Structures are given as C-alpha cells and as structure tokens.
Amino acid sequence: MGYINLAGYKLISFDKIPSTQTYALELVAMGQARDHTVIMAQAQSAGRGRYQRTWVSHHGNLYVSFIFECDERDPRLSYVVAVAVAETLIAFGIHPKIKWPNDILIDGAKVCGILIEYAARFVIVGIGINIKTNPTVPQYKTTKLDNYASVDKTELLNKLMKNLDKWRRADFPLVRARWMDLATGLNKIVKYRGDNVELIGINENGALVLRNGSRYMLAYGDEISM
To answer: Per-residue pLDDT tens for 5-55?
Structure first.
C-alpha cells in the first residue's frame, strides 16, 4: 500500500485488494475517511458493480474509488460522473457515448462501469475503466481503450481527477446539456417495466424522462433496456 498526493487528492494505492469500493466504505465505517481521497488497485479479487454484479478486474486497467464529502443523496451525481469520465476519454481522442444512466460505451461496447454508494456524510464513486484488457460478459459487449488510443494509466487518472472536480462544480444545466450531447438511445424505443417507451432524456432534477404515447413519465434509478 502506498500514499501519494496527486492533483489535490490523497491517493491510496494497492497492488491487489478485494474491492476499492469496499475499502473506501470501510474507511468511512472506521471514521478514517477524508474528502478527496481516492483508492486505487492494480487488480481486484472481488470487484463489483451495480446490483452486486461482479466486475472482472485484471491487471492493466484502472480501478478507483473516490471519497467525497456529501450532505445528501443527489440523483444528478450519476450524470456528473458519466460526463467527467466521457470528457476524460475525449481528451485522448476517443469518442465515447453514455448509456443511461452512466455506462460509458465506445462503438456500442462497454468500456467503463460506475458505481455510486452513499455512507454517512460521504459518497463513494467507484470507476472501472478497461485499458489493456476487457472481460467477456454474456449480457453485453465490452471493449478496451487500447483498441482506440495509447493511454497511460497515470495520465488517465490525473485527467479524471481534474474532470471530476470540474464537473462537480458545474451548474447542472451544463452537465445535463453535455450528457444529452453524449447520450445514446435518445428518442429511441426502450423497455421500461415491461413496456416499450420512448427515451426523451433527463430533466433538471436528474429524473429519466420517458414517453408512452401522449403520456410522459419520470423515473429514478429504474433499469431500462435498449
């Protein structure tokens, strides 16, 4: 384990741990969490995504969990983080898209997963980006940054830190507009709670806006399939 100060963050680095997200939550539970701390692992033995899904975590990729002070849950944060990650990849000449709410895709294949969890007065933002390897997953296609650009992991992390700070400070209308620019599936038919509905976008509160005929619906946190 190593400690480094980088781009205004305290970086705690491991070769391999079960999960950066779990470690961050343990810091919170022990009263040792601090704002702008990031936990990084070269590999994880028990990485996880949303709904406790396994996140395959081999060496060569970026696995980080950011600890930020947070007074209350904010559904808009998911879009902030997605835009920050997408803008980070764009800086390397890559052209990502965002699949609601915050999966990052390149050419329709997932390259990054984001997991946001709240604990006490903190929020833990877990981000896994495939750089050198990508897992084979039955449910969806995956890809890696190496297929598109030469990306140095330290430079990637540094740009990601700066973009997270930038977009967390930004007014949400700017975040929303950029998310809509980068979103995939807008004005397309998606499956929501068993019904075929049109994906319109997100509103100023971070709710998903759907349309079923002449009826508009708002959804928070529900899964949609494209």
So the answer is: 676 899 999 988 989 999 999 999 999 999 999 999 998 775 555 545 555
Range of the domain at 216: 189-225
CATH number at residue 12: 3.30.930.10
> What is the mean pLDDT of the segment spanning 174-192?
93
Residues 176 and 198 occupy one common structural domain: no
* Alpha-carbon torsion angle 44, 86, 115, 18, nearest 10: 10
DSSP-assigned letters across all residues of 53-74: -B----TTSEEEEEEEE-SS--
DSSP tally for the chain: helices H, then strands E: 4, 13
| Residue at 24: amino acid letter | A
Give the model's pLDDT for residue 194: 86
Cα–Cα distance measured from residue 106 to residue 97, given in angstroms and rounded to the nearest whole number: 6
- Grouping H, G, I as helix, E, B as strand and the rest as coil, residue 103 is strand
| Residues 170, 193 share a domain | no
d(CA 55, CA 61): 12
Beta-bridge partner residues of 113: 128
Q: Total structural domains in the chain? A: 2
Pair 150, 174 in one domain = yes
